[in-house]
Write a structure and sequence with these properties.
With 356 residues, this protein is mostly helical. The chain has helices spanning 15-25, 35-44, 96-107, 110-124, 131-139, 147-155, 158-161, 164-167, 174-185, 194-206, 231-241, 243-246, 275-278, 306-317, 335-348, and strands spanning 48-52, 64-68, 78-80, 85-87, 287-290, 322-325. Strands 1-2 form a two-stranded antiparallel sheet. A two-stranded antiparallel sheet has the order 3-4.
């Protein structure tokens, strides 16, 4: 909360409020503002607070909404040197308009535009965002920050569309990793264990250091990959998510092996259960994800292969069945690069039989 009460002991301005609005939410420290600017901005926002709207509710989320307290507002004019402007002071309930006016000025400041675009590029493209992407985003800003146009400017940039490295450059945060697991396995809570289901996934990313509401520094959760690729964070995520397979009954998933090959004779018995038989069993009239353990397209995998035909026929027989397939290993656009790297590592390694 930010209060200003004239001639009252131990009351004054919370300058942290103004400083964080400038440093973290809008123009950033490179804008060149001074302590005098911080003081004036804090006075503009004096009287701005929030109130809980369900103070007596138990066993539920606490809800809050914005509240303005005119008695805590400084009604004097505020000269803000780095903006070259004066916010006219207002009395009573109209005092809230000062903050709204200043927000509009800060939101459209060139430093806010470039800083916001750098953060978007860092989120979507690379930890050290290329300047060309940032410039394209700024150019698409428009009058009030058209977020749709800004995102299109980044994601439809020819350099992004034509560069595989940019498309696969970002590591998932622990939260994104947890969400990916839920989606990949089609995990879902049952009516009894719903709270435990979501708590397990929340713990998976919180134990890896990704806590939405309790992150220890005001700059917020980092978007750079290095923050989440350390061993402690990754092991914490992996350890929690292995519980999905080990205790799959708690997650509403049912992973089963299946084979696409069939034939007459006992020599084919090892292939059971066959995919075509499995998809016809009770309990499979739902979304089924096939994890394709094939290198490249051929007789079985890929468009027009046996597996695609089996799935199509099964869906026709069972209206509630929907199948989806993972990509084949060789379809990964960085596979060649990975294999070449491994080959070069092998060539540079010491020959067998050489002592160390």
């Amino acid at each position: 909360e930010n209060r200003f009460r004239e001639n009252r002991e131990n009351q004054g301005i919370n300058e942290n409020y103004g400083r964080e609005i400038l440093e973290l939410s809008t123009v950033g420290v490179e804008a060149g503002y001074t302590p005098a600017d911080v003081d004036m901005v804090s006075r503009v926002f004096s009287g701005w607070r929030y109130e809980r709207t369900n103070p007596n509710a138990e066993n539920t989320a606490q809800l809050f909404e914005f509240a303005f307290f005119p008695e805590d507002h400084d009604p004097q004019d505020k000269l803000i040197p780095f903006l070259g402007t004066t916010i006219t002071g207002r009395e009573g309930a109209a005092g809230v308009q000062e903050g709204e006016e200043l927000i509009a000025l800060l939101a459209n400041h060139p430093n806010t535009q470039s800083r916001t675009c750098r953060k978007l590029v860092q989120l979507l493209v690379a930890d050290d965002g290329p300047a060309g992407f940032v410039q394209s985003c700024v150019a698409a800003w428009g009058v009030d920050g058209d977020i749709d146009a800004m995102l299109r400017a980044i994601l439809l940039n020819p350099a992004y569309v034509n560069t595989a490295a940019y498309q696969r450059n970002k590591a998932k945060t622990p939260f994104e990793y947890s969400v990916s697991v839920i989606r990949a396995f089609g995990a879902r809570p049952d009516n009894v264990a719903e709270d435990g289901f979501w708590n397990r996934f929340r713990e998976a990313h919180e134990q890896a250091g990704y806590n939405f509401v309790r992150f220890p520094v005001p700059t917020g959760l980092p978007e750079v990959s290095a923050a989440w690729l350390n061993s402690a964070s990754m092991i914490a995520s992996y350890n929690r998510v292995t519980d999905v397979i080990e205790s799959r009954q708690n997650y509403g998933i049912d992973p089963r092996p299946a084979s696409a090959m069939s034939g007459d004779g006992a020599e084919y018995d090892f292939n059971e259960p066959l995919l075509e038989n499995l998809l016809g069993t009770e309990g499979f009239e739902r979304e089924v994800v096939l994890s394709m353990l094939f290198i490249s397209p051929g007789r079985h995998a890929g468009p027009g292969g046996d597996i695609a035909e089996i799935c199509e026929e099964a869906e026709a027989k069972h209206p509630g069945l929907r199948t989806a397939m993972t990509d084949l290993v060789a379809s990964h656009d960085q596979l060649i690069e990975i294999l070449v790297g491994r080959y070069r590592e092998g060539l540079s390694a010491a020959p067998f039989g050489v002592g160390v």
